[in-house]
Amino acid sequence: MTYQCFNQRAFATFKQPLFFGEHVNVSRYDRQKYPIFEQLIEKQLSFFWRPEEVDLSGDRADFAQLPAHEQHIFISNLKYQTLLDSIQGRSPNVALLPLVSLPELETWIETWAFSETIHSRSYTHIIRNIIPEPGAVFDDIINNPAIVERAVSVSADYDRLILLGQLYSSQGEGFYQVAGERLEVNLSALKRQLYLTLASVNVLEAIRFYVSFACSFAFAERGKMEGNAKIIKLIARDEALHLTGTQHLLKLLAKGDDDPEMAIIAKACEPELIARFAQAAEQEKAWASYLFRDGSMIGLNRDILSQYVDYISNHNLQALGLPPLTPARPNPLPWMDSWLNSDHVQVAPQEVEVSSYLVGAIDADVNLAELEAFEL
Amino acid sequence: MQPAAKAGEQPGAATSRPPLPAITVALPASRYCFVPRQPNLLDALRSEGFDLPFQCRAGYCGRCRVQLCQGEVRYRQQPLAWLNPGEILPCCCTASSDLTLQLPEAVVATGSWRD
């Protein structure tokens, strides 16, 4: 059935599955089939921040004094994060929105993608601050083989889901020849590709981002590029929430209460999900070699970063109830936790839920005996 | 409100807090028991040398998840993170009874805890 921006059929909104039911019509949040997505939206909105709030004036001088190989590490990381958030700022919307059937999930996806666009804006803010000609950095993202290689693997599942979704929506089930490839399009194939895409996104949020975070925080551990680290802390807080979002989706679909066929598909996809974690771990280790090709930095080198990749891969597989890839080893970067700690994110008092700002929270129960001592 | 001191108790005993529930950590070949000094379970475990990872300390990231083998915990607010059966988030819950926990292998593999 072709996509409709406003589905004119009357249907039971709250009996729809997460995906592949009726297209959403009324954006309503009075009730939710899955309240978790409404709660994620609320949390994400409470995190709202703007890159301009972070002072980067110290970073310009720091960057100028970094040795060339450390400048390479810093800039390469920013390029990679720019790539990841370019993908994440649009792809959840383009790929997932036409398939969603519940208003709370639709809005969570939009809220999630919007926060990724803030991350993209913050990279421009950072790069503009430290490089006289920021255009050269952005141009290199699509010319640099080490980065392009990752773009392909990060976006491949999204692209396939978008293609299958477009064919299914416009042509219906069947076999189609597209760019020399014979594609079988049916609902089961779409569900399978959806599950694998969510797995890829989970890997991106669980492993790929954290490799870049480690490098940013390693600079800040030495008192360098601290403005950048403040922005990365805000990004890490958002990403932790996005990771929770994809974990919920993967596990809810795998449970099968929502769509029994999805449980079978999820089980069948388990080896491929694990393979995506393993593949990303290898790619991130290759990326670590590229980052440190001209030399290491104090506190971080290729081997330590590779051990961290293994550590977070295992940790996030276990979060999904899956076996680890490698034998358990302790966190090689224990200082990461204090940088990731969202408790230490500085926020303006009016933007957090402090009791002094609660509206209508005045206790109106007054015991008149308490006033007896007053005389007018 | 604190209960009145019973006869024979030392002065000041009535105002001291009752001890927090005991925590037992199931290790690969043994058990480590302690009585926490702080109600926050994550802080209690970390102060005993168990380097549990954490990030949000508010129940939405799920990084500090551990397996609850025995006992009960209470959340002030239901956490947002996905929890597999038997998992708890020590960053945002308190023990309502004595607990037995199983920590991730990577944490007990450190050997930094005092056995």
Instruction: Please identify which CATH superfamily of the domain at 35-102 in chain B we are dealing with.
Output: Beta-grasp domain
Number of strands of chain B: 7
Tally the helices of chain B: 2
Structural class of chain A: mainly alpha
Number of helices of chain A: 11
Overall number of strands of chain A: 2
By CATH, the topology of the domain at 35-102 in chain B is Ubiquitin-like (UB roll)
User: What's the story with the biggest beta sheet of chain B?
Assistant: 5 strands, mixed
**Adjacency order of strands in the biggest sheet of chain A:** 1-2
- Which two protein chains have the largest interface (Cβ within 8 Å of the partner's Cβ), and how many residues from each? A-B, 30 and 23 residues
Largest sheet of chain A: 2 strands, antiparallel
Please bin the fraction of helical residues of chain A: 55-70%
Output the structural class of chain B. Answer: mainly beta
Counting copies of identical and different chains, the oligomeric state is heterodimer
Strand content of chain B: 15-25%
